[in-house]
Design brief:
By secondary structure, the chain is mostly helical. The chain has two helices and no strands. The chain has one domain. The longest helix is centred in the last third of the chain and has 20 residues.
Length: 43
């Protein structure tokens, strides 16, 4: 389970670095990353 969460965090970090161009975009990417972690933790 910890590996899955670490993988999700890594993928979201790479995605956010390549996709966000503004401070607002960074906030949205971080929020989506947190939601993905919550979904993974519930499983």
């Amino acid at each position: 389970m910890k590996r899955l969460i670490a993988l999700i965090v890594a993928v979201m970090a790479v995605g956010s670095l390549s996709a966000c161009n503004t401070v607002r975009g960074v906030g949205q990417d971080i929020e989506k990353g947190g939601e993905a972690i919550q979904r993974a933790a519930k499983k």
